[in-house]
């Protein structure tokens, strides 16, 4: 088992934003965490890491911070870089927790190659485009070489080909026995690449399983207020989101 | 890393050259050779001048400059803001308040009475900031706490001046707050040294954590950085270094702001590499300014703080202009 959460609950001003979530993720899986805005996806991952106080149990949160950093890497949603640090030095920051200095150069080069940012190595991070910076920050995550990776909307803001590349990379890491948990808003990407989807709504875990079992029309309408279907294509079945069927009780669009 | 070593060697050489210039500059007007000889032997009136007046002044300039440069770099790294400087967290203002109260109370007659009172003021200010900014608050709490403490200390300083029945004390206070290295003794050096050293040690150890913090507080925490401890090290370290500096030489602005700014490009903007460079750069800048005040107006006691602001503000304006133009 790579991550075990038991009755994890996070309260903000008394209201639970994550409500008794129990989840276990075995090594070698790529889990997509989906749900509408404010469902508690980010909070769940932060609590699992022990970055915010929570009730219940997470096997990660009980580790001392330095050991946790060798076991799990975290990509926050905000793409922040405070100083005009060269890209290679930024990726190297991910090597902080690992005491093995000899592995640094290889880990950094490998991570930069995997995210297609090797050609940016000496550019200043503050001068990159949003998508380039996002890829450089994912390279930092990868350079940490942890068995477990938690990423908050890793593909948001990337161009389609790099979205595919990042999702394929995560799927490949899972095949190699590592574990990736990523929150994703693009349901088509999530359905295509994740072995398993975990659907959250209002702090609760409402569905957990294979994409075709989680993305049912009834659940889509109930949680997201949209419809959707798996459409056969030459490249295999592809999930598309569709407008809600007429007469549904989905939330009405705001008045103009 | 080799580039770093070269930069540090260049800066150290600059400090050494300016220290020599500082030792050989003064109203006694001896030649360089006679000066160095007198420093070596300590004989005659010139020996006393060099050993008891110029040497402590030079050593103090290096210590004060290093404290300001190092604290500025650490605070900018911690707050992730190039506009942060040691004065921002209210240490200089509260140290000044301590000194002002001591001068008003007539403690200045005692040797080192004013520095010790200023140290007390700085410690009071730090306690207040840490109390105000809370344990879990981020950088913003620290900035706001610092502004509040600065405002309070400034108001109380003004009140003391306002109600001062003694015009000479008011005059003394005004000159003290301008900051100067003139007429400082080994007593001043020894008063400031222990606290400054403690501050330097605390700040020097924050480098790796500050690097990780470049990625934001959340990413840094996930990589194993203990944020509350880092914050304590940065605040207490700069408070100790800058509080001790202000206590013995008065308020000196711009060093902690301009030096990290000037050197950031040379170290690839990495906070850990900026720390030592900024310490040496601060020492060089204060030494240069202290030599300049003695050369520009030898007869009139031009204050170091005034000189620094006169040079520092235009340099800072130029930097801002250059950054804006570069965009």
UniProtKB/TrEMBL annotation, chain A:
Residues 3-227 form the ABC transporter domain. Signal peptide: none annotated. Transmembrane segments: none annotated. The keyword Transport applies. GO terms for molecular function: ATP binding; ATP hydrolysis activity. InterPro entries: AAA+_ATPase, ABC_transporter-like_ATP-bd, ABC_transporter-like_CS, P-loop_NTPase. The keyword Transferase does not apply. Keywords: ATP-binding, Nucleotide-binding, Translocase, Transport. It holds the Pfam family ABC_tran. Part of the ABC transporter complex HmuTUV involved in hemin import. Responsible for energy coupling to the transport system. This is ABC transporter.
Automatic annotation (TrEMBL), chain B:
The keyword Cell membrane applies. Gene3D superfamilies: ABC transporter involved in vitamin B12 uptake, BtuC (1.10.3470.10). It is a multi-pass membrane protein. GO terms for molecular function: transmembrane transporter activity. The chain crosses the membrane at residues 54-75, 87-107, 113-133, 140-165, 185-204, 232-259, 279-297, 304-321. The keyword Membrane applies. This is ABC transporter permease. It comes from Paracoccus salipaludis.
